[in-house]
Design a protein that fits this description.
about 650 residues; Rossmann fold; single chain; alpha/beta; 9-stranded parallel beta sheet; binds beta-D-galactopyranose
């Protein structure tokens, strides 16, 4: 396991570089990430490249045994570029170029930008190709799906549609454009979703396609950069740092072309009082590990209180810096890079805290960080070890986009059921993979496929095969609703999954902010909310029924035998208690071993290497927790991680 830091030599006086590098080396920092926003210092005038300052910084780190991750600085072109080539700036929804002075505002399709960015990357990579201290490359910074509305991007969008549909008539049919007289007679009539009217007025089929295009446009940009990096710097792994943002590109597509995934991890510093609040960073980590189904990196890790575009948040509590770093390891990260070594004293982010505060005196958080660094060195063998999982949850960007376009009911959002299922599995101490819906399912015993809303024939088939061959599948409400174009399928829900579910929906009721009672056959009473499918069982047995509303007595959770396997259908959006109760019995019936006695917010994960098996037990709560786990007495301080290997304590 390796620990690194994000460092900005261009923000600091040179005298500090040596001092910082010395302290890093002494603390056990193994790598630094540099230069993602430093284009103006590497090409101060068009065509004039100067890497001297960066060479000096790289050498300072290299001479202390610290590796360097270099970044392409393309998220932040310099002002001279925008002045000379104004079309390099993105165009917003209002059809106007956005203001400069920020970052991430370049148009990924503008030919001048691409020419100059390509040259910058080419110069930079050729300059550093022979330098063995460069251990990896990061592309750009936190790439988002391309929502630029300039003429060039509109042209690209039309070309994408033409490629997909060949004829305008085929596109009209796929979108159902006859509604509101929206039929096109030429490609030139197609406009992206501009304008100030609410998005909900736009055609959902058209909008899903626009989201697909916007994602693919970003992926093409990332692939283009990766190609230059690999050509000029062979043998050096390439990544980009991703996060959960407003317009997410499809991570599965984006990281297909990259060597490893890296994620920016900023867990909250204030634990919510409400036990129902979704307080689980493990979910994000498991989702990120599942993107490439291999160990990943954290490229930016919480180091201090967050602030800047938000009012400042609480400082990490004692235990969080070390604990959250170890939590990332426990869920499959091999390298954790902290954002940032120093708190910026200049620029918009001066209130987003690093490890060292403005006081310039390393304090409480730094001391914890130092402890983590020394512990990480004793965990070197964990590198590459896998989180082997019996249970998987499927995730899809098609569904993420489609649900965002058409919120189903008050309070409903796609990720919630996925997270609640994840929490329920996690409470039983299972490793859980969250994987793309197109992944191969072999090797799993249980696959939860929540809200399979936009239908993909291959995915439907794979789930049928998995169940038929003996797997356990968990389906939920809002499955089989849309065809691949995001139009409604005209058949009783869950349409393509009806045979697996052994039941169908006679009517549904979006109850929004209200709750409904659900009683299990064993008498346990739980609550559902937001959505209720009123079900008719066919071959399925009823394991829980509604206990309130006019449909009281009708099935709320069903279990069906399908081929050699078992399929569950959850007809409402449960409160956490419902998933906890259900998943325990699902796991028991599937014969998957689980842990007895884990209190809420304690996570148990394992990583298995060639000859090693590590067990991680993490108290993700700001209180002491004492419990018996499968008979073993365990006590954990707030945010404490206990690591054992073959029964031997490591921390
Ligand atoms: C990330 C970004 C960093 C920095 C950080 C804290 O999203 O990649 O450059 O802005 O947030 O604000």
């Amino acid at each position: 396991m390796r620990i690194g830091v994000d460092y900005y030599p261009e923000h600091w006086d040179k005298a500090l570089w040596q001092q910082d590098a010395d302290l890093m080396a002494k603390t056990g920092v193994k790598l630094v990430r540099l230069a993602e926003f430093a284009w103006c210092r590497m090409e101060p005038r068009e065509g004039e490249f100067t890497f001297d300052w960066l060479d000096e910084a790289v050498d300072i780190f290299a001479s202390r045994g610290i590796g360097v991750v270099l970044c392409t600085p393309t998220s932040c072109p310099p002002l001279w570029l925008y002045e000379k080539y104004p079309s390099a700036v993105q165009t917003g929804k209002d059809g106007r170029r956005i203001a400069t002075g920020i970052r991430g505002h370049r148009c990924m399709n503008d030919p001048d930008f691409l020419r100059l960015a390509g040259r910058m990357i080419d110069e930079m990579t050729r300059h550093y190709a022979g330098n063995p201290s460069i251990i990896a490359w990061q592309i750009d910074n936190e790439l988002e799906a391309n929502f630029c509305f300039c003429e060039r991007c509109i042209g690209k969008y039309r070309a994408w549609l033409k490629e997909k549909y060949s004829t305008v008539e085929a596109m009209n049919k796929a979108y159902g454009n006859v509604v509101w007289s929206g039929e096109y007679s030429s490609w030139e009539q197609v406009q992206p979703p501009f304008g100030s009217y609410p998005q909900a007025w736009l055609n959902p089929a058209f909008m899903l396609d626009f989201n697909r295009y916007a994602s693919q446009s970003t992926i093409a940009y990332s692939d283009w950069q990766a190609e230059i990096l690999r050509r000029n710097c062979p043998g050096r792994p390439v990544t980009t740092n991703t996060w959960f943002c407003e317009n997410m590109p499809d991570f599965y597509g984006m990281f297909k072309g990259l060597d490893f995934l890296s994620y920016d991890n900023y867990p909250t510093t204030s634990a919510p009082d409400d036990p129902e609040a979704l307080y689980t960073h493990a979910f994000h980590l498991d989702l990120m590990r599942g993107v490439k189904r291999q160990p990943f990196w954290i490229m930016e890790q919480l180091s201090g209180g967050m602030g800047c575009w938000l009012p400042m948040a609480r400082m990490p509590e004692p235990g969080m810096i070390k604990g959250y770093g170890l939590q990332a390891f426990a869920h499959g990260a091999d390298t954790v890079v902290f954002f940032r070594w120093r708190t910026a004293a200049i620029g918009a982010e001066m209130h987003w805290h690093g490890l060292i505060d403005h006081s310039n005196v390393p304090g409480r958080r730094f001391r914890e960080f130092a402890e983590l660094c020394s512990l990480a060195q004793s965990l070197e063998d964990v590198q590459g070890a896998a989180n082997k999982a019996d249970a998987a949850i499927l995730f899809s960007f098609e569904n993420e986009y489609a649900f965002k376009l058409q919120p189903q009911t008050h309070g409903y959002y796609y990720m919630e059921q996925i997270q609640r299922l994840h929490v329920a599995f996690t409470r039983l101490g299972l490793n859980v993979d969250i994987i793309g819906q197109h992944e191969d399912l072999s090797g799993y015993r249980i696959v939860a496929a929540p809200e399979m809303y936009v239908t993909d024939a291959g995915v439907v088939q794979r789930l049928h095969d998995f169940a038929a061959q003996g797997g356990t599948v968990i389906l939920t409400t809002r499955s089989g609703v849309k065809d691949e174009n995001n139009n409604c399928i005209v058949a009783p829900l869950p349409t393509v999954y009806r045979d697996m579910a052994g039941a169908y929906v006679t009517e549904y009721n979006p109850i929004g902010g209200d709750t409904v009672e659900v009683r299990f056959a064993d008498g346990t009473l739980c609550r559902g909310k937001q959505w209720c499918d009123v079900m008719q069982a066919e071959t399925a047995e009823v394991i829980a029924s509604y206990a309130s509303e006019y449909f009281a007595g009708s099935p709320a959770i069903l279990r069906n035998t399908y081929g050699q396997g078992t399929v569950y259908y959850i007809a409402t959006v449960g409160k956490q208690e419902l998933y906890d109760h259900l998943i325990r019995s699902v796991v028991e019936s599937a014969g998957v071993p689980f842990a007895e006695g884990l209190p809420p917010q304690v996570e148990l994960t394992t990583r298995t290497g060639k000859d090693t098996e590590y067990r991680f037990i993490f108290n993700n709560a700001n209180r002491y927790q004492r419990f018996r786990l499968n008979g073993e007495e365990i006590a954990l301080a707030p945010f404490e991680m206990k690591i054992t290997s073959h029964g031997k304590n490591i921390s």
